[in-house]
Amino acid sequence: MNGLLIGRFQPFHLGHLEAFLFGLSKVDKLWIGIGSSNKPSEKNNPFTADERKEMILSSIDNSISERIEIFFIPDLENHEKWIQNIELIVPDYDVVFTNDELTQSLYSKCGKKVIPVQFKDRENLSGTNIRNKIASDQDWQSMVPKGTKTILEKIDASNRLKIL
């Protein structure tokens, strides 16, 4: 059985990693959709799709990398067309993992099985909170996997976020 997990991963943090592992515990293969892949760098989307893919791949154990595949999912203004576009990009999948109400509603209307993903420490582990901490030179390193930390330091995320 194949599953799909979509997120913006701005940046990929420990909450995302837990959702990822939860999804993997339920399916044979997990497709990861990097959302907003077509958006230019700005305050809420400071990291490119390629950078986010690198964060994910560098944060997971090599033994499970064979069970995943990553796809870039562009934003579209029309929700119905967004779902149709995902169907063209991503191979067949049986279940969608999400904690996003809109995504849950859209896929439920399409007849796809949706499994809610529980938030892990949502107050702290949110992309917005982590980006703010990076920009203000506060402790953010404990909120992301080691691979994400390495990528964020390599691309000088602190400076990028201060500029944006």
Strand order of the largest sheet: 3-2-1-4-5
| Tally of strands | 5
Mean pLDDT: 96
Low-confidence region ranges: none
Strand content: 15-25%
The chain-level structural class is alpha/beta
* Proportion of residues in helical segments: 40-55%
Give the SSE string: EHEHHEHEHEHHH
Distance between the termini: 41 Å
Compute the gyration radius: what is it?
Answer: 15 Å
Largest sheet geometry: 5 strands, parallel
Supply the number of helical segments.
Answer: 8
Q: What coarse outline follows from CA principal-axis ratios?
A: globular
What does this structure look like?
The chain is an alpha/beta fold and 164 residues long. The protein is 45% helix and 16% strand. The chain contains eight helices and five strands. The protein has helices at residues 14-26, 49-59, 62-65, 79-89, 101-109, 127-135, 146-154, 157-163; strands at residues 2-7, 29-35, 68-73, 95-98, 113-116. Strands 3-2-1-4-5 form a five-stranded parallel sheet, with helices on both faces. Helix 2 runs antiparallel to helix 7 (146-154) and helix 6 packs across helix 8 (157-163). The longest helix has 13 residues, at 14-26. It is globular and about 45 Å long. 33% of the residues are buried.
